[in-house]
Description:
homodimer; alpha/beta; TIM Barrel; eight-stranded parallel beta barrel; two-stranded antiparallel ribbon; globular
Amino acid sequence: MISRQQxxxxxxxxxSFLCVGLDTDIEKIPAFLxxxxxxIFEFNKRIIDATRDLCIAYKPNAAFYEKHGVKGLQSLVxxxxxxxxxxxxxxxxKRGDLGNTSEMYAKAFFDEASSGMSFDAxxxxxxxxxxxxxxxxxxxxKWAIILALTSSASSKDFQYLHTDRGYLYEAVxxxxxxxxGADRIMYVVGATKSLEFVNIRKLAPDHFLxxxxxxxxxxxxxxxxxYGMNKDCGLIVNSSRAIIxxxxxxxxxxxxxxxxxxxxxxxxxxxxxxxxx
Amino acid sequence: MISRQQxxxxxxxxxSFLCVGLDTDIEKIPAFLxxxxxxIFEFNKRIIDATRDLCIAYKPNAAFYEKHGVKGLQSLVxxxxxxxxxxxxxxxxKRGDLGNTSEMYAKAFFDEASSGMSFDAxxxxxxxxxxxxxxxxxxxxKWAIILALTSSASSKDFQYLHTDRGYLYEAVxxxxxxxxGADRIMYVVGATKSLEFVNIRKLAPDHFLxxxxxxxxxxxxxxxxxYGMNKDCGLIVNSSRAIIxxxxxxxxxxxxxxxxxxxxxxxxxxxxxxxxx
Lengths: 277, 277
């Protein structure tokens, strides 16, 4: 369990607000690992060993494990158990359902006795409203990370609809702000939306924002920091493919470390720029 | 694989548009089954055997299986394999993500070679737009069932927001109508919203609507039919708890059958009323 204060402490200590996204795709990992009995876990293990001092969070993307059915889920459980306890563990699951179903998903991802896994945080889709979030908040100290503004082109389909409470993504933030505070809720805001950060910071000045879209998706770290950083940093910036697939040779873990180090050093500059460290 | 025409045929043949929801909760199944090596699958198997001639679809709710981690997912795979091929198999997963992640979820639920499961249809959350749906439509003949108006009180949080294209749920239907036709897309509309069916039928006259909320959640079948039925029936009405937990004794399967039969007979009346059969 990582509290808001512990998260801020980790950021200052590691001079980093990097989240390594474990979107581990069997077709993209080095060929020599594929004969391993548990190749996805083996890959993750080596990535984690190579990056754990450079990042403050890990985020396995559930889809990449579910793709392989039972065997894939076992790799996710193994990965969960291997995650360093000083890093925030985020399951990127984007669940969202009625109250009684949300309770079951909460057990799947937050209750180790039930499922073998107990992540610190989960990403959630807001469409079904408060019922999609409450069951997770019932676990003391755990985090609900709610989709606000995502990074793909099709985020415009609905998130930018004009509503009587502003854009839909603004209405989501305003409403979810009433469900719990910045110590329990974060928002997902894509890095490709850097100008919107100004707007989002008006609505959620204190919240941590989970920011995917750096690297492969083309967002700029400098812009995200300029417009999105708050006095506690308030950003967890995710990079998946650019780090974990930096090389597909035998040196993949070293290459991932080199890439993570590059991002960490940029982050250090940004943290120093505003006097957080 | 069940096409629109086959679905309509099944409805006429079975005089039913019932979907049995397999929200199978280990804490609610009869005590004598709990010592079974695969209790959730054993329960489902007996429910399926007892109801397959009375319903046209089965809908396992992924959360209830994921709750138990690897073991639960194995029960879901076993259940998938046991589902009768003449019934539409719907995985109630409410996924919704970026394109490259949606492709992975599509493999999880639509590609048996990858995951052990290949359902005919999946429920999807629309918040992230078209990317959340396209990857599933890429599987010929399979169905995307998009959340429009859900049945819980908190559906009001966002689905009834006034947007410049009507209520949010109306904007979702209008936009998703442009992604594929009534032969590939259905919408989820809660049974507790019967007056809104009139409105929804203006936007989606030909689509099948998946309607949860009958039974335990208090929706009226008669109202749903009055306002929501179209010339092909156009409704798949789900009941979960009221059927599968009709008894928690040794007679649970017979009790489930009796309950399903009651609903099927009401459905027959409704189908006869409008001359579909």
